[in-house]
UniProtKB/TrEMBL annotation:
GO MF entries: beta-glucosidase activity
Originating species: Kutzneria viridogrisea
Keyword Chaperone found: no
UniProt keyword annotation of Transport present: no
Organism classification: Bacteria, Bacillati, Actinomycetota, Actinomycetes, Pseudonocardiales
UniProt family annotation: Belongs to the glycosyl hydrolase 3 family.
SUPFAM superfamilies linked: (Trans)glycosidases, Beta-D-glucan exohydrolase, C-terminal domain
Keyword terms, alphabetized: Carbohydrate metabolism, Glycosidase, Hydrolase
Domain PA14: residue ranges: 389-546
E.C. no: 3.2.1.21
Official protein name in the record: Beta-glucosidase
């Protein structure tokens, strides 16, 4: 109350121009300060797997947690909360007040490009993991912006697509995670999506933003636009959007002040928006004189949290003859195969990118955990379509130059990759910089034909050993400015070099974005110099891997997607592993039945070789502790604790919802409430792996279940009937007593974790929420409690139900 009263007074002290200015970014990540009222500049940064900060550069590293799909695979809201606390700690370290996360759109289809960045196909699991995350971040005194409100579930035509969905579909599925999070965790921010819903773009959606989110659910935070999503000053202001990002050239600021002067927007509306922004500033401690009420919680070890989430999220989907866990003492020779074994894909691409400090690859993790074994590595098949950045054997300096070629700044870099988004490094003069150059030496270990490649838009000159390999201009393709700039195709060249003979190397780029006026407030420079030493061709690489696998006690093959097929900005076109990785797995598994496949992908992939392998473990995008966690799980120090947060199809052709391409700008969610397991069950087809599935290293017997209607608690007795201590995720689904074609066959209503020693019986308690049987009634435009008989079904996944309890008169 006190806080609100003070804020109202502060708003009263500001003139219209200052108020309108406060509602627009002053640059890509920050809001203007207003020292007269003690308001400091509020700083925002992406999430969700780390906090990048305002500098998009490897020189400012961050803790990198596993992908949101992994966090959801833990089915553990308390662990999500711990992850959130760690991120708040990271945010404070980097001077960030507002984390642009979590992403709680749904896995409507496995083709969604940002599937890895969302939690699940199920709204309850998404909502509970999201609520845990939001609590954790905000307990650390940092705001969250739950995104992207709403129906931002695919990427094709993402800035403009109009999603058409029935109100029931929105209420029961897509709005549901936002509702759970708003009601349970009270987030301080929500991000309005790029897309439209039923004819209105989301930044202007008065009904969903003002009526549903605010009035109905009681959201009292700020609504910030997705980056460049705001289109129209008056419609956005009246539609409920508070902050237009990024700035300064956007629909708020001077344009908003003018709209007020013209009478198109009441000044009171602007005052309310400013009050919300000041409340946000107060909550994050950026408003002097208004206490945030925050006291710093205990410090967390970032690497430990990353490792815990990675181990707990790994989902074991096949374990033939109990091949896993491996016994370290039985292993003399281990084959580790795959490009991603050495260069793990630790995180998904796009705005979620953060730069890790230290990464432990699967190869390094296994080597460290197996000091007594000979660990032999082969690439096997490399799915990447760009060369890895020049690193081994290179001594490189990055030089920033002005228009006349004079040096402005230079510093040594470990590898030749540069991404400046939002800001240039401190040492570089943003006004004067016009060119960047990687320059230095390279001493090849092997002689022969070396391949060099570069990415970067603008005039470029690539010189190796005195030979000019390229001198020309590289221009963007496509019309999505973000993807055009990020998804840079590579130009490649070959040159012969002699082993041990040091040569000079230089890539000089005059980036298009620096051509006029220097970096300015919107710096966007991405470039890389790639390199590959002469080596065996693709056929020989597979043969080599097969030969090494055949001679080894066990083969671990790490397969992965690439940034070209799974990332922000576009949807996937298929679920196949890129390159020749399927062939590699088949060949290796045929050579050694003790083959473990680790799938390093943020979202489902087809695994046509599944039955031919010994074991398959899904590691998602596992974050910076990838290799440490993987070794712990493979060698049995930890159980693979994950359960699928989304159904995995055997083939894309079987998946029930695959349309992501709008027609004339419109994407119909014609499947209604039937996505994920709800859709598979209606179709009567079996996926490769059901929602909720995951094996672990022990067995569980579900013995009995009892429902107490007074406390709404379901008690489930289960016994660890296997050989090892373990953790089980007990899942409770609700099903209508009589099948109803308009309703899913069953839906998740709760879950609980238990831990038990071998032979031990334990009790899992799940409180079934009061709204478990509610249905959106389109006739009356409101919720209706379905009071007919229902079943509570208990099991290990949506496709493996062990017990059921009947109830009468609803729940
Ligand atoms: C993404 C948001 C992100 C923003 C800022 C947008 O393109 O959709 O999720 O927070 O960029 O990087």
């Amino acid at each position: 109350m006190q806080q609100h009263a003070t804020i109202a007074e502060l708003v009263g002290k500001l003139d219209l121009d200052t108020k309108a200015g406060l509602l627009a970014g002053q640059d890509i990540w920050t809001l203007p300060a207003v020292p007269e009222i003690g308001l400091r500049s509020v700083v925002m940064s992406d999430g969700p797997v780390g906090v990048r900060g305002v500098r998009w550069t490897p020189e400012d590293p961050s803790v990198v947690l596993p992908s949101p799909t992994a966090l959801a695979a833990t089915w553990d809201p308390e662990l999500a909360r711990r992850a959130g606390r760690l991120l708040a700690q990271e945010a404070r370290r980097k001077g960030v007040h507002v984390l642009l996360a979590p992403t709680v759109n749904l896995h409507r289809t496995p083709l969604g490009g940002r599937h890895f960045e969302c939690y699940s196909e199920d709204p309850l699991l998404t909502g509970l993991i999201g609520a845990g995350y939001v609590r954790g971040v905000q307990e650390g005194g940092v705001a969250t912006t739950v995104k992207h409100f709403v129906a931002n579930d695919s990427e094709t035509e993402r800035y403009t697509v109009d999603v058409r969905a029935e109100e029931r579909t929105l209420r029961e599925l897509y709005l549901r995670p936002f509702e759970i999070i708003v009601r349970e965790a009270r987030p301080w921010g929500v991000m309005a999506a790029y897309n439209g819903v039923n004819g209105s773009t989301m930044t202007e959606h008065a009904r969903l933003q003002n009526e549903v989110l605010r009035a109905e659910w009681g959201f009292d935070g700020v609504i910030v636009s997705d980056w460049t999503a705001a289109r129209d000053t008056v419609r956005a202001a009246l539609g409920g959007m508070d902050l237009a990002m990024p700035g300064p050239h956007t629909v708020y600021g001077p344009a908003l002040a003018q709209a007020v002067r013209e009478g198109a927007v009441p000044e009171q509306v602007v005052d309310t928006m400013v009050a919300r922004v000041l409340l946000l500033a107060a909550r994050v401690g950026a408003l002097d004189g208004v206490p945030s009420g925050f006291t710093a919680p205990e410090e967390l070890d970032g690497n430990e949290v990353a490792r815990e989430v990675a181990a707990r999220s790994a989902v074991l989907v096949r374990n033939d003859n109990a091949l896993l866990p491996l016994r370290a003492e039985d292993l003399r020779t281990v084959a580790v195969i795959g490009a991603a074994a050495d260069e793990a894909r630790i995180l998904g691409g796009g705005s979620a990118t953060v730069f890790p400090g230290e990464v432990v690859s699967p190869l390094a993790g296994l080597r460290a955990a197996l000091p007594g074994a000979e660990v032999r590595y082969c690439v096997g098949a490399d799915p990447r379509t760009t060369l890895p950045p020049a690193r081994d054997g290179f001594e490189l300096t990055l030089v920033a130059r002005d228009g006349a070629g004079a040096e402005l700044a230079s510093y040594a870099v470990p590898e030749a990759g540069l991404t400046w988004i939002g800001e240039v490094p401190e040492a570089v003069d943003a006004e004067r910089v016009r060119a960047v150059e990687f320059t230095g030496t390279f001493t090849p270990e092997v002689g022969g034909s070396h391949e060099f490649g570069f990415r970067g838009l603008g005039e470029a000159v690539l010189t190796v050993n005195g030979r000019v390999l390229f001198d020309g201009v590289s221009l963007p393709e496509g019309d999505d400015p973000f993807t055009a700039a990020m998804d840079l195709s590579e130009r490649r060249f070959r040159t012969d070099l002699v082993a041990g003979e040091t040569v000079r190397v230089s890539l000089l780029l005059h980036p298009l974005t620096l051509a006029e006026g220097g970096a300015g407030p919107f710096v966007f420079v991405v470039t890389a110099l790639g390199h590959a030493a002469p080596g065996p061709g693709p056929d020989a690489q597979i043969e080599q891997a097969v030969a090494v696998a055949r001679e080894s006690d066990v083969a671990v093959v790490v397969v992965s997607t690439t940034e070209e097929v799974e990332s922000e900005g576009f949807d996937r076109t298929d679920l196949a592993l890129p390159g020749r990785q399927d062939e590699l797995v088949r060949r290796v598994a045929a050579a050694n039945p003790r083959t473990v496949v680790v799938v390093n992908a943020g979202s489902p992939v087809e695994m046509p070789w599944l039955e031919q392998t010994g074991a398959v473990l899904l590691s998602w995008f596992p974050g910076q502790a990838a290799g440490t966690a993987l070794a712990e799980v493979l060698l049995g120090a930890r159980e693979p604790g994950g359960r699928l947060p989304t159904t995995w199809p055997a083939r894309l052709a079987d998946a029930p919802v695959v349309r992501v391409k709008p027609e004339q700008g419109v994407l119909h969610y014609e499947e209604g409430v039937f996505i994920g397991y709800r859709a598979w069950q209606r179709a009567g087809t079996a996926p490769a792996h059901w929602f909720g599935h995951g094996l672990g290293y022990t067995e569980w017997t579900y013995e009995s279940a009892r429902f107490d209607p007074a406390s709404r608690t379901l008690e489930v007795e289960l016994r660890n009937s296997g050989p090892r201590a373990g953790r089980e995720v007990v899942q409770v689904y609700c099903a209508p007593g009589e099948p109803d074609p308009n309703r899913p066959a069953r839906w998740l209503v709760g879950f609980a974790q238990v831990h038990a020693e071998p032979g031990e019986s334990v009790l899992a308690r799940v409180t079934v929420p009061g709204d478990a049987t509610r249905v959106w009634d389109s006739g009356v435009g409101g919720w209706r409690q379905d009071t007919g008989p229902h079943l509570l079904e208990v099991g290990r996944s949506a496709g493996d139900l062990r017990l059921s309890v009947g109830t009468v008169n609803g729940l």
